[in-house]
Amino acid sequence: LQSTRLNQELRATLSVVAGDLRRARSVEDPLTSALLVGGNPFGAMSTANANCVIYAYAGAVDGPWHIIRLDNGRVVLEGAGNTRPANCNPGGVSTPLGSQQVEVTALAFTPTTTASTPPLATDENVVREITITITGHLRDDDTSLSSVDRTMSQTVYVRSVGTGI
Question: Is 98 left (phi over 0), alpha (psi -120 to 50) or beta?
């Protein structure tokens, strides 16, 4: 029963993260954005380190830029406003994702780049696919429960428009 609970909690957190990343680089009007000089204004996506991803999409709460990262055993979502953050800790208000009953011990974002040369001088490598891997265990005084780790992965294909994306 506890193993099933751990699997469900990790799966639910992974699903929330994957759903938000699927919207990365999206825009309200794809046709208009595709015709803009320079393409999609939310073209860059960054895995600044293994435990963090910085991305943007139009119409997002707290501005288009967001960060998902691991913070003290919890996966958190942080709105970063209208300016792309320079790092994974901009100091905004973070919202924990997932249950307090699960401690996440590892969170990794592995991008698959589709271009070795960015389409624009300001862009990083073009990312169309990112694999999210999450590892965690139950928070429990019973070490036979808290010592069991589970790892899950999901590959997300970023829906996007614009030059080079």
Answer: left
